[in-house]
Amino acid sequence: MLLAIDCGNTNTVFSIWDGQEFLCTLRTSTHHARTADAYFTWYYTLVKHYGIEVDITDVIISSTVPRVVFNLRVFSDRFFGCRPLVVGKPECRLPVEPRVDAGTQVGPDRLVNTAGAFDRHGGNLIVVDFGTATTFDVVAHDGAYVGGAIAPGVNLSLEALHTAAAALPHIDVAKPDRVIGTNTVDCMRSGVFWGYVGLINGICDRIKEEYGHPMKVVSTGGLAPLFQQGHAVFDVFEDDLTMHGLTVIHDYNKEG
Ligand SMILES: Nc1ncnc2c1ncn2[C@@H]1O[C@H](COP(=O)(O)OP(=O)(O)OP(=O)(O)O)[C@@H](O)[C@H]1O
Ligand SMILES: CC(C)(CO)[C@@H](O)C(=O)NCCC(=O)O
Ligand SMILES: [K+]
């Protein structure tokens, strides 16, 4: 069985893949100081809680936080006796190499999303991922990552308003009933929600125009369904796109 680990700047997600389906998905906040033993205690408790029969033989890691990789390598070696594949490292091959400026380090999560989306939908795609940042990844006809856009994440934008303005409270994103807010919270909700819908649609439209070929828009990440309610331009939403991409990259490296 494969343990797929997706480490974002905010959250770290573990999923167990038995070759057919994901048996479970576990989520914790990302902390660079978490030790291998601490990962295992958390992991083992939840696996027992769900009563899943697990036999991990392989581990693959995508991490946007370089510092956490060391402890995850120790975790993998100590508890499963295996050397993990780490996306972005030379020993982890990608089905198609990215085409970007020389010396650019593409976020591993974007490379993984590209592989997952190409496997399911073929080329000519925009992948929109709502995480700490909102990323737009352009997947070319042959499955190569060829660039995109990085915007501040939704929760980051809300956090920034609260941090910078004394009178603005900490709130969660939600779709407001009206565009014209009549209290502070509704005004903030309107600005962030409709501002974001405009950002998503504006960037996707401009990418399509510049790309010059019809494209499908694939969305992923916890907040995508919310923006769909504001008529964002997504063609499909896929909850498990990053995890799927990790299984695709793992299979590709095993076959080779
Ligand atoms: N309506 C909502 N308001 C606020 N947060 C939400 C809402 N719906 C989902 N979320 C949160 O959004 C987050 C989305 O998770 P996702 O894995 O997509 O990104 P992330 O973990 O925050 O970012 P990263 O992958 O960069 O660490 C989850 O923590 C989820 O609890
Ligand atoms: C943009 C984030 C933070 C999104 O998780 C991540 O993909 C990242 O750190 N990227 C590095 C820069 C780049 O992708 O061009
Ligand atoms: K993510």
From TrEMBL:
Entry GO CC: cytoplasm
Keyword Flavoprotein on entry: no
The protein's assembly and partners: Homodimer.
Chain's role: Catalyzes the phosphorylation of pantothenate (Pan), the first step in CoA biosynthesis.
Chain sites annotated for binding K(+): D129
Annotated source species: Roseovarius litorisediminis
Matches recorded under Pfam families: Pan_kinase
Record protein name field: Type III pantothenate kinase
Cofactor: NH4(+); K(+)
Classification via HAMAP family: Pantothen_kinase_3
SUPFAM superfamilies named among the record's database cross-references: Actin-like ATPase domain (SSF53067)
Binding-site residues for ATP, renumbered to this chain: D6, C7, G8, N9, T10, N11, T12, V13, T132
Cellular compartment(s): Cytoplasm
Family: Belongs to the type III pantothenate kinase family.
Reactions mediated catalytically: (R)-pantothenate + ATP = (R)-4'-phosphopantothenate + ADP + H(+)
MF annotations from Gene Ontology: ATP binding; metal ion binding; pantothenate kinase activity
Record keywords, A-Z: ATP-binding, Coenzyme A biosynthesis, Cytoplasm, Kinase, Metal-binding, Nucleotide-binding, Potassium, Transferase
InterPro entries: ATPase_NBD, Type_III_PanK
Binding site residues for substrate: G107, P108, D109, R110, T184
Gene3D superfamilies, A to Z: 3.30.420.40
Enzyme Commission identifier(s): 2.7.1.33
Cofactor details (free text): A monovalent cation. Ammonium or potassium.
Gene Ontology terms describing biological process: coenzyme A biosynthetic process
Pathway: Cofactor biosynthesis; coenzyme A biosynthesis; CoA from (R)-pantothenate: step 1/5
